[in-house]
Amino acid sequence: MFAAVAFAGLALIIWGYSRADFEPVYQPAAWGRSLAFGLVPIAVILFAAANMPTHIRAIVRHPMLAGLFLWAIAHLAANGDLRSLLLFGTLGVYALVATVSIVLRSNQSSQEKAPRWTMDAVAIVSGIVVTGLLVKFHGVLFGMPLM
Fold this sequence. Notes:
By secondary structure, the chain is an all-alpha fold.
């Protein structure tokens, strides 16, 4: 049930973003798009590693939040409009606040599975594949073609 509600929420966010008018706030840097193409694959790999016993997760304690932050920064670097600033800025701030909150109340004695290199490989390969699919279908899925 939670997954269905989360998916519906994501669909509504995408729908609202696509319906909002384009109102420029700042001119993205010339390198912003290149930065986005560099950060998004890392963000997607972090998302993939978030729920697997990986060395990535052992190093980056909260890979999903780190990935969300990188994804938000990537989109803020490539887009300078109000709707992007509100959506990606809010999600980036959320990722930072959530990470700090978790770190401040974390229990270091939690039992985690030992990381396995094969799971790192799965996270990296699946992250690259998903990134490729996102690039290819970004226009269809989100109304903003990248190519």
